[in-house]
């Protein structure tokens, strides 16, 4: 966004788009995690399952959640970059 002089409204619109998308991605992560936790509380027998000696809850709340966060963060970064480039292109085109 460097090199452009724009109205505050335009910048706030871009930031608002990023904020709304970030909230969607956050919900995409939190809803399944809390659903898993709730299922362990409601059905405690689920905590006794293991995969190759590793408890299922450790796998779900550990590596699976960690890699999900990394993938979602990468996807959000790609979306934000594309939106910023589109926004800058639109403003640059308006200046000519």
Question: What does the model show?
Answer:
It contains two helices and two strands, in the order αββα. With 96 residues, the chain is mainly alpha-helical. β1 (50-51) and β2 form a beta hairpin. α1 runs antiparallel to α2. The model has no long low-confidence stretch (mean pLDDT 82).
Provide a brief overview of the structure.
By secondary structure, the chain is mainly α. Helix content is 78%, strand content 4%. The chain contains two helices and two strands, in the order αββα.
SSE topology:
Layout: H1 8-42, E1 50-51, E2 54-55, H2 56-95
Antiparallel strand pairs: 1-2
Helix pairs in contact: 1-2
Weakly predicted, low-confidence segments: none
The largest sheet, given as strand count, sense and whether it forms a barrel, is: 2 strands, antiparallel
Give the count of structural domains. 1
Extended strand count: 2
Give the fraction of residues assigned to helices.
over 70%
The neighbouring-strand order within the major sheet is 1-2
Cα-atom Rg, whole angstroms? 20 Å
Mean pLDDT: 82
Write down the overall geometry.
Answer: elongated
H/E topology pattern: HEEH
Number of helices: 2
CA-CA gap between termini = 17 Å
Beta-strand proportion = under 5%
Q: Quickly give the structural class.
A: mainly alpha
